[in-house]
Description:
Blueprint lengths: L1 H16 L8 E4 L3 H8 L4 H22 L3 E8 L7 H20 L7 E6 L7 H13 L6 E9 L1 H18 L4 H7 L2 H5 L12 E4 L18 E4 L9 H13 L7
Parallel strand pairs: 1-2, 1-5, 2-4, 3-4, 5-6
Amino acid sequence: MRSFLYYLYERRLLRQVRGRSVPQHLGIIIDGNRRYALEQGVPDLREAYALGAERLDDVLEWCAEVGIPAVSLWVFSTDNFRRSATEISGILSAVESKLTLLARHPNHRLGLRVRAVGKLDLLPDSTIAAIRAAEEATAGNRAMVLTFAVAYGGRQEIIDAVQSMLREKSKQGEDLQAIIDSITEETIGQYLYAPDLPDPDLIIRTSGEIRLSGFLLWQSAYSEFYFCDAHWPAFRKVDFLRAVRAYQQRERRFGG
Length: 256
């Protein structure tokens, strides 16, 4: 009976969401794998991260169902390098496995085009190889852009953008004052990791933490935020639909 009532509620939420404006770019801060493992008595963290990777398949299906064309996932931050070797290995192993699967079996039905952003040079060679293979295998897909933020930090992205801009303009022979005068939001935006992606309309964070921790720091100035108590491996379709519905119910204001 409980599962049937859950199904009815899910269908009701889907009807409410459909036919209304949906985010054109959804950001997701994947959080709660460790806590989920502890609560469920899962002794191996690798298994917990593998469960989290499987949840991604469901979320992408839900995004396609309501018509969201771009999804960015924060799967590994630069701060994560401070964790234990076991945790780092578990996270990156799950990321590699998912990317390898996408490379071998590109989801042409969803039209997923995979890309990765971050300080990729800090990653192991095996992770970089998995990223490049997935990007190459899905390069022809156009329906949905799936961006993995790996070894990513929002402040670092801004630093890298400014450094790249200064480096390029210096090579072009521009003097310091000309460079200073040319700096605008639009100029810096051109040097971000993925300048072609629109700013995220909605950012979801799982596991009950009420902060962004620097995810898409520059791009999220006017994003709507939704914080969900469910840990990422337990994130349900009703949680996803509630987030989209909450976004639709807000009156978005730009500039204040």
